[in-house]
Structure formats: structure tokens, C-alpha cells
Amino acid sequence: MRGLTQGWIKAGRCSPVPGFLAVNARHDFRISPPTCAGASGLLPFAQQVGPGESGAVRKDEGVSMKRSWTALAVALMVIFAVAGCNDYGNTFQNNTGAALSFLSPAQISACSANCADFTLTVNGNGFLLKTVVEWNGKILATTVPVGSTGAPLGNVVTATVPAALIAKSGVATIITLNPATGAGNNGLSNPLAFIINPPPNPLPGLTGISPASAPAGSTSLTLMLNGSGFLPSTDPSGGSQVNWSFAGTQKKLAVLAGATSSVLQASVTSDLLVNAGTTNLTANVTVFNPPSPAPAGCITACTGGGGGGSSAPATFFICPASGCPPGTPASTSAVALVAEETPALSLDGRYVAYTAVQNDHAQIFLRDTCEGAPAGCQPHTTLLSAAADASPANEDSRTPSMSADGRYVAFSSAATNLVENAPAGKQIYLLDTCAGAGESCKPATHLISTDPNGALVGTDSILPSVSSSGRFVAFLAVTATHSSNQASAQAKAPNSGFRQVFIRDTCLGVTNCTPKTTRISLQPGDGTSSAPRPSGPALSGKAQHVAMAGANTATLFTRSVAVDDRVFLAIANQQR
Question: Which residues constitute the domain of residue 295?
């Protein structure tokens, strides 16, 4: 205590000595600096030790210590008194403005082109008429809703966020600022985080691999993959992955450096090239893009930008150790059926149903783009071809068709786990996604290709088409051809053979109705085409007409109009 030379304490902005810093700076909150009476001059307890006194020995050491402790106590009292005079936040003062509870929306995808301003709703309590919203310290154009008397509602404010503020992913700090009403009131709210997610990662497309075959026992080789939408290893998600699936087991291959958006290279190790038999074995190669991760600094509600997924598989042939048989391809293109399937779109463009490969099976997915949706909607993707326990379909699902509002999606699937006691073979299913139906609605999958009279026994049901309301579903039922000269065509084209057109009335949305399945084709056409993508029926919005491309032998309808040599328009309004 003898070395005390000055009584000034670094107490805050009210400290009268130049160069002494406040306990907590204003951080540009635009609040006027404090005015503190009596905050200048030496503190009363301050003492200065004169020259030559520092080495002197006091006779009354106890009295000196007592005075020193008393001086320290007085100093601490002055510190708290001075700090309390601030009209903005400091070490000893909590925020005194509104209490924020949540934001709507609380996150959004970054947008760098053709973007629009959006409205941010801040919910809480304690908002005043002149409350403003700040975004990373920048004041936004703020609207304070008022009641019939002109008084603020107090529990909500809105602000317009310029599109330029969401051009890059990151985390923004949102606060509100109430007008200061006097000493000890800083007007600041608690902060909330707003998440700007990076854009969704693309779905990769795999068009071919090289080489596409190798004998068992070969040394490790480099696999070249061509396609689109590939991600480099420097991507925040970690980059594209290459998966090798063989005999029910999937392994991730090491991706080599130098990846581009259209070319990947991966290492196939010798332990994967095993074949003890005399015929070729096959492995599936796919490219997987992870979803876009959450931005750095995100600690709550970090869903990320999503997107990504698996490409269609390409086939790699593992030949016997003696060598590859004649006809084994040296390179191959990926299975293109999935990539070439046309997605289904709701009338307003918000919902998109499409086919993609997941774990070696084609699955049906629904993407809610949030186009035209209320504020707060977050784009997301849902697996539709799933069992009641949410497990994916155990066989391929294809060709989705969607109702106008996006609520109902029909598709063909060979899976046996979508409904209880599912028939064998390809069946038509209709999923009620409950989109726009409210929280009381529970998603449900219905078997469509069913007929109590047995007309669909032994058939493959494919290529559904849904009416605009979702009530009616037209589909194609295919029975194996009985013509011996068409056996090869049947093997190549999955829906060549006897083709019949049915319409299922599900009675969804109506009362006093019994579901029924009606065949509208009188004579099944026996197709000979080997085209890999034969056409199915197309149902009009009100289910009164069905169009279908015929085969060489036309399918005859109860009432029909020939559009050309191979296209017929069936009049199906008897379903009504």
C-alpha cells in the first residue's frame, strides 16, 4: 500500500483522467455519451508519497494499514457509483430493451443473383413505437405493428432485409434498439442469430466410367468417372465421394486430387477385384455429393443448405482371373433410366417429385422448393417411397406423377414393404403427402393397382398418371406376351407384351363413394417394340380423357379418337 501514487481507477467512461478506457465500449449503438457530475478531479482518498518517503518506516504501521483498507473500500464504492451513471451497456448493467424470443424466418439460403429483399419478423415483448431492428449493427427499415388505439402491439416488429445482406453464407446478429429513456436505460435487446445457409449442393450425374472391367487378381487401378455436378475436395462438404457396391457391401473409394465438376478419379484397390468363378461379376459405382453444411459460426438450428445425393450407378465388371470374356465392355455408360425420367411438378411450381438412386435402388423423392410459400418456409427434400417406419423401399421405385396441388404423388414400385401384404411385382402406389392439408393430416400410402375381379393378377403395373385432384389414377398393366417371336423383345423392353389401361377411382375427397378399378381398354395391344422407354397413359386434369401411344397392334378403348397412327385419345368420363 505504500507504493500508491494515484487514486484513479479504470472505472468506465466516467473516469476523468484522459487515456483511461471504459469498462465496455458503446459498439456504435448510437447512444449519447454519459454525463456524470462530480467525476473530475482527484478522488478524496488519493495521496501522493513525496520524495524520500518511500523508504521511511512508519511508527504506527497498524494505523497506516487501517487507513489503506479504508481508502480501498471508498475507491470500490466510487467505481460502482460511477459505473451506474452510464446510459449504455457496461460491465455492471444488463440490456434494458426488448426481450427477443425468435425470428421468422430464422434462416435462409444465400442468394447472389436475381435475389429479392425479404421481410424478417422479430417476435418477443417490450417493443416501442420507435423500436428499430439492427442486422450486424446496421439499422434496417423497421415497421412496428400497432393496435386500434395506435399503441404498439409490443410483441412483434418487422424489418426489410436487403438482398445484398444474404449474398454470402454466414451468421448475422439481430438485435432491437428502443429509444433510451434516461440514465441506466440502454434500450438494447438480447441478440438472436440469423443463419444464412450456403446454396444446396448439386445432385451429381454419372455418365460413364473407364475402365469398366478388369480380371480378378489385377493390381490396383485408377478409375476415371465422367459426369456433372462433381464437387472438389476443397468444398466445405468435403467434396464428392465415390462408392463401390458389391454383393450387398458398399465401400468408399479414395478420390484422387484434381477433381473437376465433370471428372473424378478414384482408386480401385486389388482386394476389390475378386472373382473365383468362371463368369463375370458386377459392382455398382456411384458418385455421392454430401449436403451443403451449415456456415461457420453456427451453433443452433444448423441444418445447412442441403441438396446433394447419389448419382445413377455405372456397372463395373469383375472378370474371372483367366480374363474377360468376349463382349465385356472396356468402358461403359451409367444406367441412364433414372436420369432420363421426367420429374413431376405441382401446378404452382413449388413441389417437384423425381427419381434418384439411394443405396443401389431407385427411390422417389419430393422437393419442397418453397417457391411462393409464406415466409419461414425452408426448402427440404423428403423420401416418398418409404415404408410406414420410414425405411426406404426395398426395390426400385420409378415414374412419379403428381396432383395439381402437389399433395398426391403416384409412382410404380417393385418394393414389398410399402404397404402390408403388397402383391409381388411392380405395383402402383399413391402417397398422400398431406402437403397443405394441415397438421391433422397423416401421410399415407395407398395401393392403386388392385382389382377384386383379378384383372391385375400376374401383371406389372407401371407409368401412372394422376388427375389434378389426386382422386383418379390411370396406369398401364403389362402381361408377358404369348407370342413366341416376341420373347426377345419382352426381355429388352420391360413393358412390351399385352398392355391394358386401367383407371382407379380412389374416392379421395368425396363421400358415399366406393373405390373401384376400371379397365378402359377392350383389346390389349401386343407390343413388339424394344424401345427402353415405352409410353404410358396420360390422364387429363378432370380424368375425363386418357391419351396413350399405341403399339403396332393398337390398344382399343371403349370410346377413343385416333390422334395419329400410334396415339389414341380415350374418352373416359364414364368414371365420373
Answer: 202-335
